[in-house]
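Encode chain A's predicted structure.
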Amino acid sequence: MTNRIAFQFDDKLGYQKDAVNSVVNLFKGVSRHDDGTIYRQLQRMKKLVEGDPVRNPQLVSPARLLHNLREVQQKNKLFTDHELKGNNFTIEMETGTGKTYVYLRTILELYRAYGFTKFMIVVPTIAIRKGVEKTMAMLREHFKGIYDGLDIMNHAFVYDSKNLKKISSSFVETRDLSIVVMNIQAFNKDSNKIRQSDEYGQILWEDIRYIHPIVIIDEPQKIEGTAKKKSASLEAIEGIDPLFVLRYSATHKSRYNQVYKLDSFDAYQKDLVKKIQVKTVHGAIPKDFPYVRYVEFTKDLFAKIELFCVEQGGQIRKKQVKVRGGDSLFECSGNLDQYKNMFVMEDPHKLKKLKISKWDDILELAVGENNADISEEETIRIQIRLAIKSHLEKQYKILKSGRKIKVLTLFFIDAVNKYRDTSSPDGRGEYLRIFDEEYSKIITDKKGKQLFVEYPELFKDYKNVHKVREGYFAVDKHKNAVEIEDWDKVMDEDKLKAKSQEDIDRGIELILEKKDELISFEEPLAFIFSHSALREGWDNPNVFTLCTLKKGGSDIAKKQEIGRGLRLSVDIEGTRCTDKTINELTVIANDYYDQFAAALQKDFNEQAGFNKEEVTIDVIHASLRNAGIPENKIIDLTEPLRKELIEQNIINKEGMLTKDAKKIEAITFIHETLQEHSIMIKKAFIEAMQAKGSKKILIKNGDEEPIENGAHSYISEEQFEQLLKELGKRMSQRTLYQVNIDSDAFIEESARELNELLRFKRVLYEYNIETGKAEFDEQKKFRLSESVQQTFFSEPEGLDLQKSQFEIINYIMYHTLLPRLAIYRIISKLEKATLLKNQDILDVVTQKIKEKRTEFMAKGVVRYEAIDGYVFDESTIFEADSIDMGMLEDVASLVFQTSADKGRAVHKYYKFDSDGELQFAKRLEEDEKVLLYTKIKKGGFVIDTPYGEYSPDWAVIRKGEDDQARLFFIVETKIDKEDKDLNEVEKTKIKCGKLHFKAVAQDVQFKQAKNYDDFLLKITV
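Encoded structure for chain A:
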């Protein structure tokens, strides 16, 4: 038998001690009345050996308890309460941070400090109950060392309806510390045995009510019911009149008298849980396939779909569009042939699949589905391969770092027969067969076996695939793996059939039995397959890779599943590792990254209670801090600010923004300090809620009105008006350029480069693996970063390439605007022309021809011609930049305010992209020979070139040697660039600028300058 590893627990972890003390300090100085037993008129016959119920010391000072509560809340930076809500106290602790440890230790501290003896731990499921049992057993020796040899196992037991005498003698009547662990199903119905009278008239539930136990609820959100109606479970707990209730969870629905908070954000930032990396696997579809993905049903009742799309001259790309009944996918795609005669059949509905017709076929897609991806088996194979490689890489990295931590990988699957299949010859299911094949390949390649070569003593049985992987599933009474009936449909344990839940519980028991063996290298098992229904049983700290082998990846994008791998890892000595470079969980899913990320983010934030309209204490603190309030004053101002926001109807009592929130700028604070900092507090508050995503609050760029930018008043004076008119006249004329191209040279060079490009090309299927990391933003909102994409390929079999040469030439002609004969001549010179039948390769070839055409045109530009009637609107040529106060206050924004006294600039303000441009403007402003200048806004005035539209930087009117204003300079500033350093595109555009102005006005000089001195030098030549 493998050695069990004894987990080592640290009794000095600050955050756990804070959580314990936050509860213990509630009762400091609170008067207690200890009358031991309860003398009452018994309405039943008393058994000879039966004693009287012994109750907890009673609290008789609610005012002091409330005072203590507020002190604890202030210390822990929580909103303070003004009433005790049924003596319920909430402790929020992120999954994996030791919640069970904390409440067990809190029980022992309350016993030692105040003499409280009767504790009832209530859990929502048997799975959690078994976890509590396992934790108590693991903590037995640890607690003995802290509490003078007290053995928690001698004071705790699990309720058993078949042994009611145990709860009577060991809980109700004992004067010693007693902890009973009960699942809610044991007492939440009138028919439960504990609530029925026995032959002596004894109702244990009544006796429990009289002793006023302290109730600890593990995961209270699972038993609360709805806002309109309490659950029977909650009513049952309230019915026993507990002395007080402690609620422990990472995901509370309601936070009654919250005394401690360690949320996902705090745990993540403090490295108390593993970091999360996500990898998604999906295929890259050939671009000539009529691909459609149903992305979402939108709030405005459209279906958002993704399909291939192209614009003239562009490449085929995936694009998301909104459609309704009757919309043509052919038109949406930019007239791609594969979408011909494809229409949305009816208006989309959130409860129905989207129907799309194509000729005689009907395509039906649910949200998240698409009609062309790699096969499910291939996806599963890639996922399993990634998981095995991830496992081996992590294990090697950890051992190389000097730490003896055994890595585990967990596969969640959706059906037992995918692992064990009695109908197959060897009993292996599809997933197990693929795993065995992939594992056997990987451990024999050079990189895969590196781990085993360097650490042979740790992996003696690594070649025995039967020993390195195992499946844990729900099992029946005979320990045979069984499916969970209706699990995928129900997804709510309360609605599961009793037999199904019993099967799950037995499976979890098997998992927990081996929990402390699995982290030993003596146990070769490292890859575990489990049904998603067993998720609560899996809390092994050494799960480093979690792979979800399920259809519809977003269905498993749940914090609950991910939470199975978030606990910090443990070495072979049982010591927890806190190295953040090691503690990272990799989640591998079959999905598109954006879809998986959206689902996971939504679930994480919903579970964490994130609401974009909620004004949390973090928002209040940030508003005060960003308003310049000293840190030591923020706590004192938190409650006054919240109170005033409620009284002025900006938020309601639950902390949510009201419909009047937009009026916040008009309110007046009563509190003196808040009033003093009013403008900055309101500004910071608006920014904080804007960052959360609220739509209810007025968002302005600072407190100032927008800066009005426009022409200086002197521009309307006759002299300046004439200058501007002359400048506008020369800039308004549009031109067309003419080119001379050597056709033979163009065709020969194009064919030569394309042959080189296609020499090693072949038609392949493409697969994408996208990877991103989890993080939190400043508003404590969970999100996944932008993904990094890796692409790999495989050879397709029997690919049918249908494009004709006529279709290929038409496609290239449409996107390059070249004559048909020229394209035919290029294609006829290609050695592997058949590859152009593949749309992906045709796209690459088309873009290459287009680039070569542009290159030849740029070389061949010979002149520009002005075209009569082809002019710019002068109002757009001299359009002013938009400026606001924020830009003026931000020194990094490079906004320049011109001087009206100098009388040279057209506009009051200009904004620049570089400091070099700003310095150029300042020199123009100071140059006494400059009569008028303006920065040209991009797009207002353009010159057509082979490389697209081009806008110079400046228009300048400057006196010549005879002091006459006859020089009109259009300047292209390439700051600090010598002529030799310009690239071909820049050189071509400058050449085109000169030719353009040569065609429209002989008195306009077009100059390129690296700085103002260079400009002056060039205009004097």
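The two ends are 94 Å apart (CA to CA).
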